[in-house]
Write a structure and sequence with these properties.
364 residues, Rossmann fold, eight-stranded mixed beta sheet, two-stranded antiparallel sheet
């Protein structure tokens, strides 16, 4: 499967929900498959908090493929023999699109904390601009999980009829206090780390050792992405063989796992981007700007497909059920599937086999 990665530079202003303007700005995107002559075989994939435009396939020298590789490719659910699949890096992220560590035109200074607060609405507006730049004015489907699901639903409300199908997994209609509380741990851990320096750290400063504050915040995130059942199954009460049981900082396997994964994460993910993206997640509310959630749902013209996961401890299935009930009340075309899983929130990334057939049915 051929992977095409490009960056597009926009000189026209992007008017943000906050009232501020982003000008100029860049968007990095990756595509798989071929765009047909009518440009009507396009599927847009929206990534989650820590994701990027690299959704599938391998880069040279990589040991791991893109984050949704099990779903995207020849003869997979998002079949690149049939569809032109495109995934953009959201604005505010740290993988090439304009974010807080980008240069602040016309100076050579970096935005840092002067970067404007961005929202899910802003993210999809920028993606819509990119698609227009590519001459794409209608989509076969928009799909995403978690923050990606927020983007998919926001597309359905803000740009009704833009896509045939909207597929939102493991997400919500408005971020609940439970999620905001987890994000608060990360925000405070980063801000209070002396090496964060109020955002005035050097570029690539944390490549070698990472930022402890981000690593600690990410531990809170990891806990919310799993479930008690999946932790029991994966780690049990196993103790690290090389650590003494009566050493104060001796570790259980679950502790070692959290240390290893979060320390690695803090070496490659920019802490300012993390702060801005969790702010976007916290402020997500599908009803904002439309009076009520019912008024927002009334705008939808696309077919909406909701997929929740029974063991999701971050965005609970009843949150997606609530959307389904309102779609039913408004006589909208929709489907709802609750996947029987005890893995946790990250099931949408891991247990592809439990919902890939459903996505194939939707795209038939």
């Amino acid at each position: 499967m051929e992977i095409v990665t490009k960056k597009v530079h926009f000189t026209s202003p992007l008017y943000l929900e906050s009232g501020r303007i982003l000008e100029p700005y860049d968007i990095v995107y990756e595509s798989y498959g071929k765009l047909n002559k009518n440009k009507d075989n396009v599927i847009l994939v929206c990534h989650a908090l820590s994701g990027s435009h690299h959704a599938a396939g391998f880069y040279k020298g990589d040991r791991k493929p893109g984050w949704w590789d099990k779903l995207i490719g020849p003869n997979k659910a998002l079949d690149t023999n049939r569809y032109f699949v495109i995934c953009t890096n959201t604005i505010g992220s740290c993988f090439g699109s304009t974010g807080p560590m980008s240069r602040m035109y016309p100076s050579n200074e970096r935005y840092r904390l002067k970067f404007p607060v961005i929202t899910i609405k802003d993210m999809i507006k920028a993606q819509k601009q990119l698609l227009s730049h590519l001459g794409i004015y209608h989509l076969k489907a928009i799909i995403g999980g978690s923050m990606g699901g927020m983007q998919a639903l926001q597309f359905a409300v803000d740009f009704p009829g833009f896509s045939d199908e909207i597929i939102a997994l493991a997400t919500t209609y408005a971020t609940k206090p439970w999620v905001i509380a987890f994000n608060k741990v990360a925000m405070e851990a980063i801000r209070r780390d002396p090496r964060f320096k109020d955002g005035n750290y050097d570029v690539d400063e944390f490549k070698e050792e990472g930022l402890s504050g981000l690593a600690i915040g990410r531990i809170a995130g990891h806990i919310s992405y799993l479930s008690p059942h999946s932790m029991d199954r994966k780690f049990g009460r196993r103790y690290v063989a090389t650590d003494g049981m009566f050493e104060l900082f001796g570790r259980y396997e679950v502790e070692r796992y959290l240390e290893y994964n979060t320390n690695n994460f803090s070496r490659y993910f920019d802490p300012l981007s993390y702060l801005y993206i969790i702010k976007a997640i916290n402020t997500f509310n599908l009803a904002r700007g439309y009076g009520s959630l019912y008024d927002a749902i009334k705008r939808i013209k696309d077919r909406v497909h909701l997929i929740s996961f029974k063991g999701d401890m971050l965005f609970f299935p009843e949150e997606m059920e609530h959307i389904a009930k309102m779609l039913e009340r408004e006589k909208k075309e929709f489907s709802y599937l609750e996947v029987d899983s005890d893995y946790g929130h990250d099931a949408f990334l891991v247990e592809i086999e439990k919902f890939e057939d459903r996505i194939k049915e939707i795209l038939k």
